[in-house]
Structure formats: structure tokens, C-alpha cells
Amino acid sequence: MNKEKNIYFPNLDDVKAAAETIKKVSAVTPLSSSLRYSKQYEANILLKREDLQQVRSYKIRGAFNKISSLTNEEASNGVVCASAGNHAQGVALSCKLLKIKGTIFMPAPTPNQKVEQVKMFGEDYIDIKLVGDTFDDAYHAAMLECDELRKTFIHPFNDPKVIEGQATIALEILEQTTDPIDYVFIAVGGGGLAAGLSTVFKELSPKTKIIGVEPEGAPSMTVSIKNNKNTELDHIEKFIDGAAVKRVGDLTFDICKINLHAMITVPEGKVCQTILELYNKDAIVVEPAGALSISALDFYAEDIKGKNVVCVVSGSNNDITRTSEIKERALLYANLKHYFIVKFPQRAGALKEFVVDILGPNDDITYFQYAKKTNRENGSAVVGVQLKSATDLNPLIDRMKHHNFYGDYLNDKPDLFQFLV
């Protein structure tokens, strides 16, 4: 353990030891050149494909390294974690391979698909307990069990052994290319990956700029670094669940505030665009957190021209039931999906007039919810319209106003939007 002003930093020898430890379970994932992104950004864009791990995320590295480090007494007492995502799968598989009993606490609303996935990896070595409505409820129940039964809590990010396990990704990247790396983009949730990877690069490739990427709706590391203290957010947008935390780790914050070149936040809608592009154009399936690093490239387009750039694709545990929401968010971000309150005159032919005279030739109605008549002259409906081009919006609004159909525009009224749509 290195020290800088009493701050823990992963020791390079410990990271190399972790790499040996996890060989039996963690794949050396490809560092693949992306022809499409390289052409788009006039740079050499490489993708570190952690989505191709057996549990489809890098989380197996830290979980296995931590659980492997337990003493015989700790191992016999068993382990506990709280997670509804990739960490739970990493812990489950580690328990089965190391023959250690584990209890995994998950919020009660966790989709059954995720519960079954964890059961598959852990088999008879894990018990799953569905507790409470939120992650915080599951976390508190997990900590209570640790205290009562002297079990070891396997933290998803705020633990030296977990950080050292995640840091092994950096060793692989540096072994997989002989060219100097100018930038590495990594998703930041609790900060375990960022803390581990950035420490290795600082020692072995100090000129590389490490860029941490957070969801716009959950900027916990960004805010903490700005405040120069670990800061818990009051509210977060949970859509990018693999990287949405209210508070990053104390250990990871101390490391990241020193090591990271910059933090950037990316709108959730932009991430959804990236997910769809990767699937439709590259046949790559990623979860929202897995698309964060690539989504940041647009915001660094000028800086990375002619550079060697690595994006860590952190995971691919995407729930297919979220596809419609992903498409919706992508269209909203691109200004191609718009919702209105439309006032329909209470006369025959009003709807036909709206379709023929108001909508453009390439506009589609994708949502229509008619309300009760509000008066004798007009009845309101919430109407969703998908455009071919973002430039078609203002002409559409002008036509609605000219024909007295316009009631209100909902996209920029989030509270009303959530209530009505």
C-alpha cells in the first residue's frame, strides 16, 4: 500500500498479484479497434471489451480478488453483498468457484431475469434475499446480517482488494498495445474501476489522460471533486443503474481526485443513442453504463483527433424489456420525439384536419391520449409526434398555432411530462 498524505493507493505489485489470482476466472478481454468510431473521430479508437467477460462485466475481477483474500475463518463464516446488478453476479460466481457460502441482498422490485442470472452463477453456494424497495434497504439489511453473524461484506467499490482487482484491466490494456495511449475513457459509478486503472496508468503511462464519465443525472464523483470532499447527492436519476450512486467510495474519491485528468457528465439520452448505434451498426450489446465511455467521445472530438484512445466497455447486462425506453430517450435527446397538448375543435373532421394539414409529410403520431371534453368548443389530447428531422419542429408548432390546435409543449415541462405521458 502506497501512501500520499495518508491516502491509500493500489500498489503495483498487489495489482500484479491480483492479475495472477483472477486468471482462473477472468478472461483477458480483447482490445479491439473500432473502424467506425476511428473514422468518425479521425483517431485510433480502441474498445476494451469487458462486456465479453463470463458474467458480462468487469465486476468479476474485484469480487473474485476480494473473496480470494479472505482468511479461512472469514471464508467459513461466509460473505454478504448488496446488489441488483453486475456486482451480485461477480460475487455469486466467485462464491461458487471458491466454494464459499454467500448471501446476496437485492431490492424486492429487482426484475426476475436478474435474480435468475445471479442464481445461475452462484448455484447452491448463494442465497438471495429480496428486501425493501431500494438498494439502500438491501444494503442496510446486508450490513445487519454481517454484524449479527460475523460475515464479511463484499463492497462493490470501496475496498482495496476490489480496487486492485479492477486495476488489472489497466495492466491488460498496456500489454495489448505498443502504441502510447493518449486518452482512456472509463465509466464512473462508485469509482473502483477509475481508482484502480488510473493508479496503474499514473505509474506505467503517466502521460495518458484518464477521463471519468458519469451520467448527467448522477454526477456524484464530479460534484465531490468540485467540492474537494466526498459529497452525497440528495437525488439521482437511476436509469444508468450500473453507474448511478448517490455517494462514491471514500477510498476511490481520494484516489480519483488526484489521478483523473477530468470528469465529464453525459446526458442519459446520448447514452441511449450510443446503445442503439452499437447494436444496429456493430452488433454489440451493451448496458447503459457500458456505453458511457463511448458516449463521451463526442464531447472530446477535437481533443482526440489523431490520438490513440481507449474506451472501456464495462458491461453488457442489458434488460431487453428496457428497449422501448432506450429508444424513447434517444429520440427525445435527438429532438426527434415531441409531446404536445393539442386542442381539438369539437366538430367532425378535426382529427383528419390535424393529420392532413398540421403534420408534415414525414411526421408520425406515436402517442395519442384523448381527454374528456373541457368545454363545448375544444377537447384536449396528449399527442406524441416523431419527426424525421429536428428542424421540422418549429414549422409544426407554427402550423398548430395558425390552425388553433396548439395547447402546450410538454418536453420542457418534466413534471407535467411524467404525469401525462
UniProtKB/TrEMBL annotation:
The keyword Amino-acid biosynthesis belongs to this UniProt entry's keyword annotation: yes
Enzyme Commission number(s) from the entry: 4.3.1.19
Cofactor dependency: pyridoxal 5'-phosphate
Domain ACT-like residue range list: 338-412
Family matches, as SUPFAM superfamilies: Tryptophan synthase beta subunit-like PLP-dependent enzymes
MF (Gene Ontology): threonine deaminase activity
Taxonomy, superkingdom: Bacteria
Family per similarity comment: Belongs to the serine/threonine dehydratase family.
Entry function: Catalyzes the anaerobic formation of alpha-ketobutyrate and ammonia from threonine in a two-step reaction. The first step involved a dehydration of threonine and a production of enamine intermediates (aminocrotonate), which tautomerizes to its imine form (iminobutyrate). Both intermediates are unstable and short-lived. The second step is the nonenzymatic hydrolysis of the enamine/imine intermediates to form 2-ketobutyrate and free ammonia. In the low water environment of the cell, the second step is accelerated by RidA.
Identification of the protein by name: L-threonine dehydratase
The organism of origin for this protein: Thalassobellus suaedae
